[in-house]
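Need a sequence for this fold. Nothing fancy.
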């Protein structure tokens, strides 16, 4: 238990340090550009219609209409006109976040895992236990399940304690499923991946939940974008970039943790990685001496 917590803390601070590298910062901006372009295109074609539809939906609520009539009696303006854009942003935010997670998983995570592997685990054998398409299907399936869980749990958000627990828990489960699978897809075999995910499931889920709470912090920036409409198009991309940077940190954290756990697992099993020079020397010796005449083989010459 203590060893696992030590590995958890060690991988955390290593991931934080790696986030300061220029390469990681540049990688965190690349998905932002894609998300920004997609958001701008969707907003250009569908923003007015989405706001109008939301106003009609809010206007159909008898409770909200009664409350609006009471406010207008005191001189207040149109409540639905103010709430509709906010409601559209609130509804669109989880979609953008889920899409950002998929983009980071498919584009950033392999690059960051490769960075960690090259610098910390250059001799760790790559067993390629999962292909790219398997990783993509795993991420897509996990995301669909998370969205379904979010939709089903929305009524429970009205209970004050649960709104602080359920979304981060679902978010943490999704992050743990996607990140851990992608990190181990290249280096671990299928059996090793299953064993690590089962053995470290609790700590991996805790990592996912913690990064889920970290991902909730940019919501303050979203709220500022709604309140200060003049800076909306600056604050919203800033919030998306913060989300993306949190995802990058998550990828690095899971990469450091999972690869270190994989190295420990192989060490306990007695699977050692021979130095590259030894492997090259052995191969050259076999090639030179011919089949069956490696070092130590009896010579045919008399």
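Here you go.
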């Amino acid at each position: 238990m203590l060893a696992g917590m030590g590995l958890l803390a060690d991988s955390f601070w290593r991931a934080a340090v790696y986030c300061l590298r220029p390469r990681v910062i540049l990688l965190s901006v690349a998905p932002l550009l894609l998300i920004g372009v997609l958001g701008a295109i969707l907003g250009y074609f569908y923003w007015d219609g989405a706001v109008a539809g939301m106003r009609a939906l809010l206007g159909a609520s008898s409770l909200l209409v009664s409350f609006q009539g009471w406010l207008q009696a005191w001189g207040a303006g149109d409540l639905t006109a103010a709430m509709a854009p906010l409601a559209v942003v609130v509804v669109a935010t989880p979609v953008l976040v889920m899409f950002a997670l998929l983009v980071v998983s498919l584009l950033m995570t392999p690059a960051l895992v490769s960075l960690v592997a090259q610098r910390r685990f250059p001799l760790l054998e790559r067993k390629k236990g999962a292909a790219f398409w398997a990783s993509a299907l795993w991420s897509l399936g996990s995301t669909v399940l998370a969205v379904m869980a979010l939709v089903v749990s929305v009524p429970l958000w009205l209970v004050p304690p649960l709104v602080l627990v359920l979304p981060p828990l679902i978010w943490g489960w999704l992050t743990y499923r996607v990140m851990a699978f992608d990190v181990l897809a290249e280096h671990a075999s299928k059996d090793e991946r299953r064993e690590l995910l089962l053995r470290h499931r609790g700590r991996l889920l805790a990592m996912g939940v913690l990064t889920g709470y970290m991902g909730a912090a940019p919501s303050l920036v979203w709220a500022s974008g709604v309140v200060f409409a003049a800076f909306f198009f600056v604050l919203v991309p800033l919030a998306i970039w913060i989300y993306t940077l949190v995802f990058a940190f998550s990828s690095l954290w899971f990469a450091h943790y999972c690869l270190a756990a994989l190295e420990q697992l192989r060490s306990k099993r007695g699977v050692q990685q021979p130095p590259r020079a030894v492997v090259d020397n052995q191969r050259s010796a076999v090639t030179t001496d011919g089949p069956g005449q490696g070092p130590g083989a009896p010579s045919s010459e008399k």
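For context: The radius of gyration is 26 Å.
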